[in-house]
Amino acid sequence: MKELKLTRRSFLKATGLVIAVSITPFGTKIINASERGSFDGTFKPSVWYEITPDNKVTIYFGNSEMGQGSMTALPMIVADELEAHWKYVQVKQAPADDSFKSPILGAQVTVASASVRGFYEPLRKAGAVGRAMFIKAAAETWGVPEDECFARLSTVFHRKSRKKMTYGQLVERASKLKVPENAPLKEEKDFRYIGKPMRRIDIPDKVEGKAIFGLDIQVPGMVCAVVAHPPAYNAKPVSFDEALALAIKGVKKVVKIPQGIAVLADDFYSAQKGKEALNVKWDEGSHPYMNSEYIEKYFMECLDKPGAVAKNVGDTQKALSEAKKTYEAVYYLPHVAHAMMEPINVTVHLQKDRCDIWAPTQAQTGTRMAASRVTGLPPEKIHVHTTFLGCGLGRRSQVDFIVEACEIAKHYDKPIKLIWTREDDIKYDRFRAATCQRIKAGLDGDGNVVAWHQKVVCTSILKFYNPAWIKNGVDYFCLWGIVDSPPPPVFSSTVYEFPNFYVEQYLSELPIPAAPWRSVQNAPNAFVIECFIDELAHASGKDPIEFRMNLLKNSPRARTVLETVREMSGWGKPLPKGKGRGIAQHSCFGSYVAQVAEVAVNEKTGEIKVEKVFCAVDCGPYVNPDTIVAQIEGAIILGISTALKEEVLFDKGGVKSSNFDDYKILRMSEVPEIRVEILKSKEKIGGIGEPGVTPVAPAVANAFFNATGVRIRRLPMNPKIVLEALRRK
Amino acid sequence: MISLNVNGKVYNVDVPPDTPLVWVLRDHLKLMGTKYACGVGECGACTVHVDGVAKRSCVIPVGDVHGKKIVTIEGLPKNHPVKRAWIMEQVPQCGFCQPGTIMQVAYLIAKTPNPDPEKVLKEMDDIICRCGTYPRMKKAIKKAIELSKKGVKK
Ligand code: FES
Ligand code: FES
Fold it and tell me: Which chain B residues have a beta carbon less than 8 Å from that of A393?
C-alpha cells in the first residue's frame, strides 16, 4: 500500500494545483500548497485536493467510510464550489494524521454524525478558493478583467470573446497564484451537486466485491491470529495445552496475552482449529452468579440507591408535591450488541522503529494513541491505514481490539491479522448500555408539565472509553438526549423544557462494558422520555401530538417536524381493530426527527408487525439527499430491530448470546414501508447518521398502546414480553 | 489435493477437506469478495454458486465441492442485471453484506424462467443486512428482474 506523507516534499512533487485546508478551532486557513514560497512544512492540512493537467481532481479524505456516504458527500461540497465536473473527481483515503482532526470533535474520528457537519463550511471555502484561482489564471492568460470570466464544469470561459480553457490547461499558471482572501461562495440556487441526489463513489466497487474491508487486507508474510477469550468476565486461564495447538498443521505460535490466549497460524481455519485444540480451562471469573435475570433485578434495585446529580433546575421535589397530578413509570432496556456485519478485525505489523496498522476504525487518533501505549513507540511512528468499514455503529470507535492485536504483534515479527469470530464479536462487544429509569412528573391543571424527576441507572460508557471524562460521578455520555454535557459542551439535552427538572444517575458496578451505539445513548433515553410523554398526554386527555406541541413552544424546528409527520401519516384517521399509530420525536447532533409508526398486533401470538413508518427530518442544509434517505431508512430498521428483537443474554458471569441464530436481528420481510421527508431548512447543518434511529422504538411502543390500550415499558417487545403485558390488561 | 473450479479457473489446493469453502476462497485463492460474517449459515454474506445453486460457503467443507463449478462475486459478469440494478438503486451502505446478497438474488432470478418478484422477496429472509438496506434491495430485485427479462427478449 502506498504511503502518503504530508511533507513539504510530497506537496512539491505534485504536478498540479494543490489546495490545502487547515481547520482549527480558531478558524480555517487555506493555502496554495503547490506554491513553493508559501508552504513552510509546518502547515497541517485537514483536507487537501489536487487538480492535475489531465483535469482530474483528487480529494484526500480523512474520515472513515462505513456506509454513511461521507466519502461522497465531502467531495461533493468541494467539487460544487470548485465548479469541477463530477466525472473528473476522485477520492483517496488519507493516512492517519493529526491534521485530519474533525473540527468539531478535536480528534480524527468518525462519530457523532459529525463528518459533513464539521467540514461543510471549510470545504465550501476551499472549493471556492480553487475556482477563484482558475478564473484569475485564465483572465491573466487572456489579458482580460476577471469579472468578465466565469467557471463552468472544470472550464473557464470569457464571456465576450467566448474563449475557454480547461482547469487542466490552467493548472500551471494557477499553481503560482496566491490564495485569494475572500473567494466568493456560490449562492444556494447555483449549487450543482449540493442538495442533489448523487450516486455514491464507493458503490461500484462494493457491488463488484472489490472494496477492501479490514478483513480483506493482505500484507506479505502475514499470519492470522485468533484468540481464546475468557467465557466469563475477569476469568483467568487455569490450564491450556499449547503442544496440542502447535501440533495442528499451519499453527505457528501460541502466545498468552492479557486478553486471553492467541493462536497464530498460516490461515484462519488452522488458527481456529489450534484454538480449539488448546482446550483452555478457565476459572469462574468475578461474577459467576450473574445472568440476565440477575442484571435486571440489580438495575431495578439500584433505582433506590442514591446517585450523582446531573441536573437540578428549580425545586423539583416541591413542585411535585404541589402538582395537581403526578405520574410515575419505570422502564428497562437491556444491553444490545452492535453486531456489525464485518466482525472485529485489524492487521498489525510491528517493527523495531515503526508500526503499521490496517484498521477498519472510526478512531484514527485513538488507534495511534493506543498502539503507542502498547508498543512503546511514539505516536508519529504509528501509521494507520484506514480501510472500508463493514458497519461502524460506534463499536469501531473503541480501541480494545487494536490493543489486543498490538499485544499479539509484540510476540511476532511478521504482520498479524487478528480476526474475531462472530461469537467473539458478540460476546466481547462493548454493548449499548442497558438502562433502568424511573420518571416522575407533575402536571398542573392545564396539563403543563411543571416537574420532571428522572433517575437513570445504566452501564457506564465512559468507564471503558475515557474514565477521565466522568465528571462528579456523572457519565454524561449515558445521558445524551436528556441533559447537556459539561465542557467541551455537547448540546445533547432533550428539547423539552421543564421549569423544575432533576436528573440523577447511578452507574452499574457490574463488569459489563458499554460503548457508543449509533446515537450513543440518545436512542434508549428517547425511548424512555417519548413513551412517558405519551403516557402523560393520554393521562391528561390530550392528543399526543398536541400535547408535545404545547411543550415545544420554544422549539420551532421540533414543532415543524411534528407537524410534517402529522400530515404525512394521516394522523387521526381511524384504523381497523388490532392496529395502532404512535408518534415520537427526538433531536440530537443538531438534527430534528419525528416519526409515526403504524403497527398491527396479533394478541394471540404476541407478535407486533410494524407496517409503516413516516419520518420527517430537519437536518439543516443537506448535501446528498439520497444518502440521507438511505441513512434514515437504515436507522429506522435498526431501531425496529432493537424495539422488537434485540437483547444480549447473560449467564454464568459472561455473555450467553453468541451468533445470529440466538441474537436475532430484523430481516427483510419484517421491514415496514418507510416514507421519509427531508425538510428544506436554512438552519445550522446537523448530523444524519444517527438521529433517525432515536424516535422509532418509542413510536412503535406508543402505537402498540394505541392498538391495545396496554403500555410496554421494557424492550425488546418480543412475543413473550408482549403476551405478559397483555395478560396484565 | 482438492481440485476446485472457481470462476472458470481450476485450482488445486492442499488443505484439510473439512476446511470451509469460504476460507479456501479467501485465504488460499485470495478471492476476498466472498465475506465471512457468521460462519454458521445464518446471514448469507458468504454466498456463492455451486453448480449454479446459491450456497453458504461458510458451512460447506471444501472436500464436498471437489470438481464442482463455483462462481463467486468476482465471477459474476460486471453487466449482470443484479449488479446493474444494485448500482441503479444505490443499494449498498457499508457494503459488507452485498456480495453475498447479490449472489443470492442472481441465483433466485436465474432459477425460474419467469421469476416472480414477490416469490423472490419471500426467499430473502435468510440474508442479513445490518445497515438496513432492505428497502433498496427490494426495489433492486424488482429492477433486476425487469432487466433480465429485457435481456432475454433482445
Ligand atoms: S458467513 Fe456464511 S452464512 Fe454467514
Ligand atoms: S450494506 Fe452494510 S450490512 Fe448490508
Answer: 130
